[in-house]
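Quick board copy: two proteins, each given as sequence then tokens.
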Amino acid sequence: MKVVIIEDEQLTANRLQAMLKKYDPEIEIQAILPSVSESVEWFKTNPDPALIFMDIHLEDGQSFSIFEKINLDLPVIFTTAYDEYMVQAFKVNSVDYLMKPVNYDELARAIDKYKRVHAQNKSGSIDQLLRSIHQKENGYKERFMVSIGSKLKAFETDEINYFFSADKLTFLVTADNIRMPIDYSLDKLVMMLNPKEFFRINRQMMVRLSAIQNIHVFPKGRIKLDLIPEMKEEVMVSLDKITPFKEWLGK
């Protein structure tokens, strides 16, 4: 079976690829595509795969726009951060989903469903799926699913005070100082979180307004933040973010 993975997080794509090979070593990964534009160009010049694994948020926009740019009537399993209401919309259309972080058992069940349903040419309506996605495209992420051993734990976005990146990983930090790795880059989180509540202060951090305890202003306009819970390192607003940061505070 030939498969295409559309995912802009390399670690997530690698994990998915490894699990697909575990499910069936004969699965052929035709391509791993990180963006809408690269996906569109790839499908214009390459034979169709049997199945697509597709993230919703890509580095250059929402993945559903791929269907609007080219005629792509193929079965899709979404790897998505959308809530349960959105998930139900996918399932109505006989298009399955994988909540991040991807779980092997759910992956296996999704492929089994593909074999039962799509292999018999009973795929759902892409148009109906796109309408469902458009209805939710302006929604913000409400929870994060995190792998803890063999279990998944949900962290509500309201519990999270800030996110930071370190050692090529991204971590969430709750108000009571629980720190857990997640499968999203800060670039992606900017698109997923409510900009009224969260602001990316530099390349390594994104903070919630209510997590800011004190703001220190230094010569030449430099700004340092005290956060709840406290970070071991100094938390500085980068120079190019100072003006938009002040505007964000004023809102």
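And the next:
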Amino acid sequence: MLKLTPILLAIGYALLMYRFSAWRTRKELDAKSTELADRRLLGLLSPMAEALDVERVRVMIYEIDPVNGLAAPDGRIFVTRGFLQKYQQGLVTAEELASVIAHEIGHVALGHSRRRMIDFSGQNAIRVILMGLVGRFVPLIGPLIANAVVGLVAAGLSRKDEYEADAYATALLVKSGIDTAAQKSLFRKLEHLTGGAGGGTPAWLLTHPKVDERIAAIEANERRWGLD
């Protein structure tokens, strides 16, 4: 039991930190968000709500400049003011922004926030185990190796979530009568819209799949589902 104590403490600490982070995120979002009121976008959300068999899809605008969408741990859907401004400037279409919302709905529907809490706890336990094992042989760089391994695991799990949310979004867009071309065209714009994030970083280190790989996965699903 004593040998397991550090691992149990690591898991407990990770759970506590995740809960604290979720609380802090909710407080931040509550203070800096307003409800989406754009009529064109709301018109696209209406068939989504019908497809999901819910009264409405509620989307909040997070009042920050970076271009992003997010699914909060409490299940709320957000797009940033910066993203909405790109739409208002004509750089992003209403259908493209709707595809972002569908993607974030996918994260919520597939329980990715809960999965991340479990993953985060497991990764912290792995870090403790690796630091103990590797540290016996290479004391000075053991922690660096442990963090690198855990980082690779976390990146892989994150990419898996993104592919799943993309597939969910494709299905929801089709069911809502929105062409999936908007989903793919937005991915082609993302690098420019976000300032070229990702660059030459190897795919296995990225928390999000590369654009070409995401589009290829969407098209593979379309063929599998007879949508092409």
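Board note added afterward: Residues 5-224 form one domain.
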